[in-house]
Amino acid sequence: MIHWVLDRLVFELARPNAGKALMTDHLVHILFIETLRAHLARESRGPAGWLGALLDPQVGAALGLIHGNPVKRWKLDELASSVAMSRSTFAMRFKELTGDSPMDYLLRWRMRLACKELTERDRTVSSIAGSLGYVSDSAFSNAFKRVVGCAPKAYRVAAELSGLNGLKWVR
């Protein structure tokens, strides 16, 4: 299937056909999905990392809860009971699959959202903090510095100076 998609993509790119842009966009999406499927089929123990965590029924459901409501003040026992697991088993499996504890994952997810907001929108740091569930700007700024390595305002300035719409930051 991948070869067919590649051949069709080359065909579309080589000619000035009506709907060329739309067709190539769809073919690139299909190529991505087929490549991902091929990769997953080769994994003997199942995919590792975040993708493996998403495919796990319980950890994937917890990730859905975290991503769906990052503002909520999630507690470990609440997430565990939401996916019908004991607290300790859930924490162990979550860390095994994602590499982070559930609360560290939540913190990092919030900071990724904050980075996006800081570079894509003209919102105050205070409003971003509130939208991510922080009751004080200082708590948000401290968490941001701990995860990203600089203050939110410094991050925004660096992003503006670099001309990037969102800096990449290291885990």
Describe the structure.
- With 171 residues, the chain is mostly helical.
- It has three domains: 2-42; 49-99; 105-162, Arc Repressor Mutant, subunit A, CATH 1.10.10.
- The chain is built from ten helices and no strands.
- Helix 3 (49-55) packs across helix 6, helix 5 (76-82) crosses helix 6 (87-98) and helix 7 crosses helix 9.
- The mean pLDDT is 87.
Tell me the radius of gyration: 20 Å
Q: Main β-sheet, in a few words?
A: none
Strand content: under 5%
The helical percent reads over 70%
Mind telling me the CATH superfamily name of the largest domain? Homeodomain-like
Quickly count the helices.
10
Keyphrases for this structure?
single chain; 171 residues; mainly alpha; Arc Repressor Mutant, subunit A; 3 domains
Write the layout of secondary structure elements.
Elements (H helix, E strand, L loop, with lengths): L1 H13 L5 H23 L6 H7 L1 H12 L7 H7 L4 H12 L3 H19 L4 H7 L5 H12 L3 H11 L9
Helix pairs in contact: 1-2, 3-4, 3-6, 5-6, 7-9, 7-10
Structure described in brief:
The protein has 171 residues and is mainly α.
